[in-house]
Amino acid sequence: MLHTRIFQFNPLGTNCTVLWTGDAPACAIVDPGMSSEEGVKELTGYLEANKLVPDAILLTHGHFDHVWGVEALLKLYDIPVYMHPADKQIMLDGASVFKGMQSFKSLRHDFPTVDITDGQMLQAGGAAWKVLHTPGHTPGGVCYWSQENSLLLSGDTLFSGSIGRTDLVGGDYDVLMESLLRKVLTLPGETDVIPGHGAPTNIAREAQTNPFLQPFNEPEGDNLAQDGIPIQGI
Fold first, then answer.
1. How many domains does the chain have?
2. Is residue 15, in this structure, part of any structural domain at all?
3. Which secondary-structure segment (H or E) carries 175?
4. 197 domain-assigned
5. Which is nearest to 191 in space by CA: 176, 181, 206?
6. Rounded to two decimals, what is the model's pTM?
7. In the sheet that 53-58 helps form, which strands lie side by side, from edge to edge?
């Protein structure tokens, strides 16, 4: 049985998810967005209290709010950080990607990552995860799918009732829609979804009710996908 614990970190409310199976101590950490020492202590305290030991960090994409706490964790754990290589530059160029957000503590991050590719299988937290390359929010955005556990980690590709914004550097609305229609909505309807921000959902609910995924939803303007329905993520 797969266990999940979702934390919300940083001013943007990024979901950081800890995943583990059964009584095994190994766990995976998805998108550790801790922006403060208190957040790092909250996460590591939970791991220690539950006798969990991280064996991998899974990044859905390279935006600063999803990678904020990686450096702090790498000081404590010698573990791989998985990320699609197409987002390496996004991560390095945070200051130029997020113009107008310079009030945040740090937008630029640089740490070693292990390249992943579409269709690749990973073992992390005692479970098998299939990498689904879902560009559109960022060039290297991915989802992680555990077929056995009927769970998708969607990052900022798909939210409950919404989709990722595409107005930042590297974003592309048409590419994102193709990713959603070809790779995400084709998953079984009962698949649970933990997004990068906001509440969990499932594939069937989003296919039936998400306004961005309904027929004849082509936007009338360049920013309708961002302005029509609130977008939770960066």
1. 1
2. yes
3. helix 173-179
4. yes
5. 206
6. 0.90
7. 2-9, 14-21, 26-30, 53-58, 81-83, 114-115
